[in-house]
Design goal:
By secondary structure, the protein is mainly beta. Helix content is 9%, strand content 42%. It contains 4 helices and 23 strands. The chain has a 4-stranded antiparallel sheet. Strands 10-11-12-13 form a 4-stranded antiparallel sheet.
């Protein structure tokens, strides 16, 4: 097995080689942030799995875990004590899509996820990041925090842009606005699929009666808004947020229209001459068996017609 070596203030050549180009996880040692982790065989200890294949992103000496990022190291030390002071850290791999190393922390009665930026070394602590949780532009990460009696609460953390240093914004709990937690019905977030940087489809576990449901979260005016609450019957499901009291209006964004009309456009119409002028595009939705055509310019509504 190859090791990254640290001696005093100087990295030896093997360390430089493995820090510059992080090794991705093999398929049978899936990094928890990846959607592929859901389909992979269950692996209780990702760190042990990565050690067996000679992964050079990390090293361990007893209770001390060392992560080798592009410009240095980050260390974590286990505290194997009884009671609330207990802490243990396990390396879970490198997520090539987001550029984060992932460390899983375990406490006395809780767990959390630590994200380490490979290029800049910035660290973020999330309350158990969900598979697929990091947005395409790496500005947000969704996480589910286990709560007794309520499945998993849903949180969103805002991340600093790549390479930027500063205070990380506080996490925002979305549970009350986007999830369901009451007797007989509990929505538990399972995964995140991003349509773009401000639209995310959340897959929920709902229990025995309706095991799976999906809802859309759209970021509008800086706030994450759901198209409806999960784990309801189709007749009971009502939008938790409806732009402009349910009416189309000039100036609406694409995201607002998609929330209003219940999803992505079903097709597009483009005038070839528009390629040489203003950025115009017509999207259409089927509404009560009629085609609703909505004209956008610079991704804002300028007109519509049936």
């Amino acid at each position: 097995m190859s090791h990254c070596v640290w001696v005093g203030p100087i990295f030896l050549a093997p360390m430089l080689a493995c820090a510059a180009v992080p090794q991705p996880n093999p398929a049978h040692c899936p990094v928890p942030l990846a959607i592929e982790a859901l389909a992979a065989p269950a692996t209780d200890d990702i760190e042990a799995c990565l050690k067996k294949v000679g992964n050079r992103n990390f090293s361990r000496k007893g209770k001390t875990l060392t992560i080798h990022w592009g410009g240095g190291v980050q260390t974590y030390k286990d505290k194997p004590v009884d009671g609330e002071g207990y802490e243990a850290f396990r390396y879970a791999g490198y997520d090539a899509r987001s550029g984060f190393h992932v460390v899983q922390g375990t406490g006395y009665e809780w767990t959390w996820t630590i994200l380490i930026d490979h290029n800049g070394g910035q660290t973020y602590s999330a309350q158990g990041a969900l598979p697929g949780s990091v947005s395409p532009d790496r500005r947000f990460v969704f996480s589910g925090l286990s709560e007794q009696g309520c499945g998993k609460e849903l949180y969103v953390d805002a991340l600093l842009p790549r390479g930027q240093k500063g205070k990380t914004p506080e996490r925002v709990e979305l549970s009350e606005r986007v999830g369901v937690c009451r007797e007989g019905t509990t929505s538990v977030p399972q995964r995140v699929d991003w349509l773009d940087a401000e639209r995310a489809r959340i897959t929920w576990s709902c229990g025995d009666d309706r095991p799976i449901d999906q809802t859309m979260l759209v970021r509008i005016n800086g706030q994450w808004q759901p198209d409806r609450l999960p784990c309801h019957s189709a007749t009971a499901a009502q939008p938790a947020y409806v732009p402009n009291n349910g009416k189309l209006a000039v100036g609406m964004s694409v995201a607002e229209v998609e929330v209003l009309l219940g999803g992505d456009a079903q097709g597009y119409q483009v005038d070839p001459l528009d390629y040489f002028g203003k950025k115009r595009l017509t999207r259409y939705w089927m509404v009560k068996s009629r085609k609703l055509l909505v004209d956008f310019e610079n991704d804002q509504v300028i007109a519509w017609r049936y």
